[in-house]
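Render this sequence as a predicted structure.
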Amino acid sequence: MLSKRIIACLDVRDGKLAKSVKFVDTKDIGDPVAKAKEYYDDGLDELVFYDITASSDARNIMLDVVEQVADQVYIPFSVGGGVRTVEDANKLLWSGAEKINVNSAAVQRPELIAECAHAIGNQNTVLSMDIRKVEICRDFPSGYEVVINGGRTPMGLDALEWALSGEELGAGELVVNSIDADGTREGYEINLTRMIAEAVSIPVIASGGAGKPEHLLEVLTEGKADAALIASMVHFGEYTISELKTWLRERGLKVRMRY
C-alpha cells in the first residue's frame, strides 16, 4: 500500500493567508511564507497554494508570493488560481511550483487540461474541483454540481461526470473540494470523496471540512482518498503536522514520517 499523504493548503488573497467558511466570510489570518516554512519543517508531505481571487478577479496569480513560498519548501508544491493557458502554467513552474492546479478555466475550456498535460506532463497537471451538494436529478445524477470562480458561479455540470472527463483529458490527480464542508471543521464529505475515488484510477485528494485527526483517518480509509488536504486545524495552531501523522500511524495508517 502506498503511503497516504497529508497536504496543507494555503489559500492566499492579496498576498496574505486567508480562510473562509463555505467559501464566504473570508478573513486574513497570517503570512503564507512563514506558514509554509513551519509546515515543511514539521514534516509536511506536500503543499498546495491557491490564489483564491485570481479567477474571480480575472487576473494572473501573484508570482512573487509563489516564489517566496517555493524558496521555503523542498517537497512537492502545487499552485493554482487563475491558470488559463499553458503559458500561465509554465510561469508557475519557473516560479518554483512542481504541480499546476487548473479549475475554473478548465471547466469553461476543458481542452486546457489536455494542453497542460501535454506541455508539462500528466503527473504535474492537477484538476481541482469545487463542488456543492444538490438534489439528484437528470442533470445531476451524482447529486453534486461543479461551481467555479471561488464558489460564485454554478455551472450546471455533474461533479462525477466532470471528474471522469478530467481524467480522460489527462489530469494526473484530482482535488475534490466540498463547498458545503469547507471551513466547517465537521469532517470531509465522505460520500462525495468515495464516489469519485472509486470511479477514477488517478489519485484523489480530499478537501474541505477537516477539524480533528479522526476526520483524516475516516476520509483516508472509508473515503478512499489518497491524500487529505488540511487548513484550519493547523493554521490556528490546534494541531501540528507531526502530531497528526504520529496519531494516524499509531492507528495503523501508512504515512511518511521524516526522521
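Summary. Residues 137 and 143 are 7 Å apart (CA to CA). The chain has one domain: 5-250.
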